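Dear H.,

Thanks for agreeing to be a second pair of eyes. The structure we're designing against is below in token form, covering all 75 positions.
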């Protein structure tokens, strides 16, 4: 097997260069990015909660309709 040291050194250097470039090109500061992500997560959480609540109400109506005694029309 070949010597793995050049690969490890290349991986470490590549990681450092990639992290440096990402920090330099980031569009927002860390605090601002965290705030934006938290706001987006809150918005999504709210939408999912509302959708789940609406769906639950719909299913409860369907269940109530299925449990209600069926009126048979006999002539």
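And this is the sequence the design step returned. I haven't edited it by hand at all.
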């Amino acid at each position: 097997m070949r010597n793995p040291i050049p690969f490890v050194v290349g991986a470490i250097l590549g990681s450092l260069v990639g992290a440096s470039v990402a920090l330099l090109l980031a569009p927002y500061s860390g605090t601002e990015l965290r705030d934006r992500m938290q706001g987006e997560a809150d918005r999504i959480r709210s939408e999912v909660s509302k959708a789940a609540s609406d769906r639950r109400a719909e299913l409860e109506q369907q269940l109530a309709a299925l449990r209600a005694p069926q009126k048979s029309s006999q002539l």
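Two observations from my side: Residues 39 and 45 are 10 Å apart (CA to CA). The mean pLDDT is 90.

Warmly,
E.
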